[in-house]
Amino acid sequence: MKHYITQIDLTPNVVKEQKITDTYSLHRVVYDQFDLTGSCEEGQRQAPLWTVSNGDVVKKLIILSSIEPRNVESEAVMQARSVKEMPEDLLEHSDYLFKITVNPVLVRRNEKLKVIPIKDVTEIKKWFVNKCLKNGMEVNCSSLDLISKKADIFKANNIKNVINKCVVQGQLKVIDPEKFRYAIFNGIGRSKTFGCGLMQVLPIL
After folding, report:
1. pLDDT value at residue 192
2. Which of 2, 65, 104, 162 can pair with 48 through a Cys bridge, CB separation 3.0 to 4.6 Å?
């Protein structure tokens, strides 16, 4: 099953032309790259996962998708965009460095669904370690580092959204390859539509 890694440099031209001001405008740019009207294989996520990464000169949109991006009308985006197939052997290792933006929450199901953001640093790390265990990964706790934490506030369709975003990095060991692959391709946690859940991994050789 092919997957694609798309990178868009957020150059001044792209930011100005696409009117990028917040998470929702980034979400719009990401989804504009794909035709999502077709069907996908069972168990395969159709919608892309994405995150924003700091580059050497400008920030970058990093997108993981099961669909090859289409050509868009924006010349600025096409000039700033690169696409490559995800290497087939990338997920065949046992140890990785990782970085991910997550939305750590407690979900309580009583009469109404209640989602409570986790804000304490120790509790965030505990939540993340448990989440990884459920997804076939064992995190090296001594390497785990929460490098940023913020409330991301934006409007989508005139509805105010507040997402508790945390960027976590460290080292992990794969304990269940099948669950690990599923987590990489389908994301971890909530708010995947708005830039959470994509785990960037680098094998430790």
Report:
1. 96
2. 65
**Contact status, residue 9 vs residue 77, Cβ threshold 8 Å:** no
Give the single-character DSSP code of 131: H
Cα separation of 5 and 69, whole Å? 9
Strand 4-9 to strand 59-65: parallel, antiparallel, or no bridges (unpaired)? antiparallel
Contacts (Cβ under 8 Å, ≥6 apart) of 120:
none
Q: Where does residue 46 rank: exposed (0-12), middle (13-18), buried (19+ CB within 10 A)?
A: middle
| Contact predicate 13/75, CB 8 Å | no
Q: Which residues pair with 179 in a beta bridge?
A: none
d(CA 60, CA 80): 9
Distance CA 101, CA 78 (A): 26
pLDDT over 70 at 21, yes or no: yes
pTM: 0.92
Q: What is the mean pLDDT of residues 1-14?
A: 95
CA distance 26 to 8: 11
Q: For the chain, how are helix, strand and coil distributed in percent, rounded to 5?
A: 25, 40, 35
CA 5, CA 12: separation in Å to the nearest integer? Answer: 22
Contact predicate 72/33, CB 8 Å: yes
pLDDT tens column, 39-77: 556 556 779 999 999 877 899 999 999 999 999 999 999
Whether 138 contacts 132, CB under 8 Å:
yes
